[in-house]
Amino acid sequence: MVLLLCIVGNGLVCLVVLRNRKMRTVTNLFILNLAISDLLVGVFCVPTTLIDSLISGWPFNQLTCKMSNLVQGMSVSASVFTLVAIAVDRFTGIVYPFHHRLRPVSAFFAIIFIWLLAFAIIFPSAVRSTVKPLDGICMLQDNQIYPVFVCFEDWPKEEMRRVYTTVIFIYVYLAPLGLLSIMYGCIATKLSKNLRKNRSRSKKRIKVIKMLIIVTVLFMVSWLPLWTLMLLTDYQDLDRPQIDFLSSYLFPVAHWLAFFNSGINPIIYGFFNVNFRRGFQSAVACASCNSLVSEMRRAYFAFIRPNKVSAGNTEAPNRQKGHFITVMPRTMGQGIQDIVLQDIN
Question: 263: part of which helix (H) or strand (E)?
């Protein structure tokens, strides 16, 4: 279900923004970038994480291990940084309405910088990711003994892993949440002051702020369990039964919750934004019309009407025929959410 939500929902978001020229605003370009990162989560992260949670050990090769961690980390980092970029754009547009706003070209270069920054932050994790067999753990199948492989970050020292986890936690979760809270707090204060001056305009903006608050809270709630488990496994000396319990029960639930955040975003877009809702309906209606036309064409070519019998020809023309412990890798599957607003300034 989460996989379908990620692919279908975010695919529709990309389609709506790319097809409609009027929706290619700065904010919607950032929304497009968020949808692309969520699509990467659905295509590359959800299947590998699901298979790794269901079977014993890591079933893929080392390249898949590195790429899985790299794509997941880059996707979630790019989503968070894009969310902050949208908040900055909204902040300057509402709190400082006479300042210079971002142009679409500037937003495009900002998106490139976001992905480069995300790559730089997650690259050490991909480099240290490797596939190795678990010591003393084997799997018996058909009277054959097989080693159990795991995908994990192999650091020279345990302190290096802890430092890296802390840095990622601050830059990808804690600091963005702090910036979002500050900027949206200033926006809410500014809107409350302007509510009496222009009531209709302020009501539209208040609806936008409500959506931003929901997006921020969903992001915080969805990713907090996974970050808590990652910090717990790095900073606590857990024994084998405890690791077995976390890997078998808590990590899969935490991953599902984090990935669900990527699939729920298009629903938020459609609920809060009229243009996206109309775009979704148009895309679905267009797909339905195309399928109906194709069915009519098939029916037409399968049952062609016979030609009229000409005078002097009395023959009718012919018709055409027609359970071992599995140490989960550091997966930061993406997702963070996004914001769909019109350029109301």
Answer: helix 251-272
Instruction: Give me the DSSP letters along 50-98.
Output: HHHHHSSS--S-HHHHHHHHHHHHHHHHHHHHHHHHHHHHHHHHHTSTT
Long-range contacts of 193-202 (CB under 8 A, 24+ apart): 201/344
Tell me what the pLDDT averaged over the chain comes to.
76
Ramachandran angles phi, psi of 152, nearest 5°: -155, 170
- Residues 90 and 343: their CA atoms lie apart, in Å, by 9
pLDDT digits (tens, 9 = 90+) for 250-271: 888 998 898 888 888 777 776 7
At 64-115, the pLDDT tens digits run: 889 888 988 898 899 889 889 888 888 888 778 777 677 888 889 999 999 9
Give the span between the Cα atoms of 321 and 57, in whole angstroms: 54
Instruction: Kindly state the tokens that stand for 246.
Output: 């976390």
* Domains of the chain in sequence order: 2-278 (1.20.1070.10)
Helix (H) or strand (E) holding 144: strand 144-153
Tokens encoding 106:
């500037």
Instruction: Give me the amino acid identity at 207.
Output: K
Quick: pLDDT tens for 192-235.
776 666 655 556 667 767 777 787 788 888 989 999 998 888 88
What is the spatial distance between Cα 215 and Cα 27, in angstroms, rounded to a whole number? 15
The structure's pTM equals: 0.74
Distance between CA atoms of 190 and 215, rounded to whole angstroms? 20
